[in-house]
C-alpha cells in the first residue's frame, strides 16, 4: 500500500515538473506570435482631393497658354468665371476621377471642380479657332495653333509631337465610352457639348507636367511629392 502511494506521489511530481518545464516555452511562443505586427494595407491616395492646379510651377520652362483665347471673342461671356476659363490654365481633371484613374464627367460641379460649363467653354474656343472640323477635333490645326503660340523650340517639338499624338489616342479612347461623348451644360439642360476639346487641353497640360526637361525640373519637397501623386492619379 505504501509502495502504491509512493508511486502515485512520484507520478504527480513528474507531471508537475513537466508542466513547469514546458510552460515557459509555450508562453514565450505565444508572446512571440502576439508581438508579430500584422501587415497593414497600403494607404489609398484620393485623387479627387489632390490639388494639381499649380504643378506647372515645378517646371521652370513650362509654356503658358498655347491657345489664343483672346481671339475667341464669342466665348468671353462663357469664360467670365475663373473656374470655367481655368480649364486652359490649370490641371483639374483629377477632381472628377477616382483612384482607379477613371474619369467621370457630369453636369454638376463647383468652383474647385471641372464643371460642364468649363467643357462647353473649351468647345466654344475650339470652334472659334476653327480647330473643330465636321464635329471632330482637327489635330493638324491644333498642332498649327500650338506652333504659332509656343516660342520655345524644345516645348514646341514636345507638344506638337509625342504629346499631341499620345493625347489624341487617350482622348479618343476616353470619349468612346459613355458618358464622355457629350455633357450637358449646367445652366442649360438642353445644351450639350463635346467633351473632347476640354479633355485634350487637360491632357496637354498633363504632358507639360510629365515632360519637363531634367535641367528645368524643380526638386523641392513640394514638387517631388506632387509629381509622385500626379503619377499615381494620371488618367492619360
Task: Describe it.
By secondary structure, the protein is mainly α. It has a single domain, classed as Recoverin, domain 1 (Orthogonal Bundle), CATH 1.10.238. 47% of the residues lie in helices and 6% in strands. It contains seven helices and four strands; from the N terminus they run H-H-H-E-E-H-H-E-E-H-H. The strands form two sheets. It has a two-stranded antiparallel ribbon. Helix 3 (116-128) packs across helix 6 (196-210), helix 4 (139-149) packs antiparallel against helix 5 (153-175) and helix 5 crosses helix 6.
Task: Itemize the secondary structure elements and their pairings.
Elements: H1 2-35, H2 82-85, H3 116-128, E1 132-133, E2 136-137, H4 139-149, H5 153-175, E3 182-185, E4 188-194, H6 196-210, H7 221-232
Antiparallel strand pairs: 1-2, 3-4
